[in-house]
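Summary for the funding panel

The consortium committed to producing paired sequence-structure records for every protein in the target list. Below we show the first two records in order, beginning with the earlier of the two.
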Amino acid sequence: MEKYRLWYKRYRGVIDYTQALGLQKKLWEHVVQNDLPGVLLLLEHPPVFTLGRSASRENLLVGEEVLRREGIKVYEVERGGDITYHGPGQIVGYPVINLRFWRKDVHAFLRALEETLILFLRRFQIEGFRYPPHTGVWVNPENPEKIAAIGIAVRGWVTYHGFALNISPNLAHFRYIVPCGIRDKGVTSLECITGNRYSWEERYAMKEWLAEAMGTVLGFDMQEVQEDFEVVLSQGVIL
């Protein structure tokens, strides 16, 4: 049986959060209008806090002065979940997936994103795990710490927003929030676990491994786009 094709794009450097959100919405429209399987963005952001639909402002622990000093912006968004952090050194994945080409089951899709991240971590001999009822991926069963957060939105059975995997981010920024609204558990990164600092180029390679893992879990044929999706859409190309 032929696999559906899922196009993905790896970005270098950091991408402004609002720019990435706008691109997701354009891609959502493109996927819906052309009845396509979907696309995947893999990128990094400048420092931001995002508050999902169930977020409490009380979980943002610092005021405007600290946010200005640290250069952290705050956005309220339509994904599920509470407050989380994005920043350089963290790989963010935005799967804009038409669930009609997979399974019309949002909970199953969340579990599939977790499985994608767990599969990726095995490359580093790290056993990630689920920690119900919390969505995401955790490490260290004796003292669970979150290494990847997940929060999506779904309209018309097409997903957007996605996951954030801590590779080498500034973990001090997580102290300014109650990550995902969970007060009694810590946050960690691949760097903390392995003791290695991962360069931009190493993280760029990791984005390909994440795409491969997603293809394995979802059963899609992953194909990389070399040009920016903005350029592809402006040319009227149907992905």
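The next record, for a separate protein in the list, is shown here:
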Amino acid sequence: MWIKLIAFFCRLIPAQVAHAHCDGPCGVYDPASSRIAGEAVLSMTKKIIALEQPKNHDQDAWKNFHNTLARYIAIKEEQAELAKRELLILWTDYFKPAHLKDFPDLHTKFWETAKLASACKQEVSLEHAQELLEKIKEIHGIFWKTKGKEVAWYAGS
């Protein structure tokens, strides 16, 4: 009975169709989260490279070494995935075909940056971690130019 009554009212007073051009309301996009994740990837990569193995056969020292290494790797991979996800959301939800007129290599920049994020997950490469952060920096600049602003890169770089 209730279903029939609700259906009757829905036909009587139909809801208006809402149109949106993105998943979220305008103004919610910002490349800052990808920048922070990229900085964490670089930081963890440096820490992994700098981590020294114990010089003795002390089991506790080796346990701590492996625990620390595992934690650095987990953070590096998590943050690389986060950077990639945030960039892909920015690429697919914020940037529109009109932006390609001013930035014709936009798709290539995002594709290369996403590939670098994947590479940073797969390996321990200081070069790739630094390159990832540089590519994020380029996208950061493009994003703010589309908004008519010049925003300085953060001091953490």
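Regarding this second record: The chain has six helices and no strands. The chain has one domain: 32-146.
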